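Dear colleague,

As promised, here are the two records you asked about, laid out in our usual form so they can be pasted straight into your sheet.

NAME FIELD: protein one
SEQUENCE, THEN STRUCTURE:
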Amino acid sequence: MLSIKSIVNIIGIKRRTVSVNDKTSIQISPETRDRLYKLKFRRTYDQFLSELCDLYEKEHEDES
């Protein structure tokens, strides 16, 4: 009888560890991606979108 570990090794499944830095994906059109790319100059998409959210929240604080 094979153990779970043996089966995992045979079929090549690798355990994925969850870390604080895990990212998700979002679906956007190529046009939107290109626009974001031009706006994010020297920042990661995550940094840029975080800044964008901060600006939005600051501008709309009275609405919450």
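NAME FIELD: protein two
SEQUENCE, THEN STRUCTURE:
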Amino acid sequence: MTTATAERELVIPIAESPLPNPAQETVRLTSLIYENNEFVFAQEMPVKITWNGKIWVYESKEYNIIGFEENQQEADFAFRQTFTACWEEIACEEDCNLTTEAIEWKTRLKSLVTMVRQVK
């Protein structure tokens, strides 16, 4: 298990990876950067990274976030993009516009993120 910060992509180079095919590793994020936003976390967010020989999957079951692509960098980007979309569409939405399940999801996201700050 690896702890990762927002400064590095969640990339396991295939040629350098000790992981067999299929491969799996869990990293724990303390923050996440997407475009100009850095999401700073109150606790580590576990992200399971899986390579099945065809696609890369980045998944946080606890927060219902997933990103997958054939290319690892694109899967990392998809995960970050999905997280940000969930933040904007769920965590920032008024409760009256959300289902009960979405409100529970919103609560989990809001308890994870302590700050969103602009980065260059």
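A couple of things worth noting about protein two: Residues 1-8, 12-19 have pLDDT under 50 and may be disordered. DSSP finds two helices and six strands in the chain.

Best,
R.
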